[in-house]
Amino acid sequence: MEKPRILLADDNPEMRGILLEMLTEFYDVSVVCTGKELYTLMSERRDLYSAVICDVIMPHWNGDEAVKMAQAFGSSVPVLFISGDEQSIASMKDDSCHFLYKPIRRKALLEKLHEIIYTGR
Question: Which residue has the higher pLDDT, 92 or 54?
Answer without folding.
Answer: 54
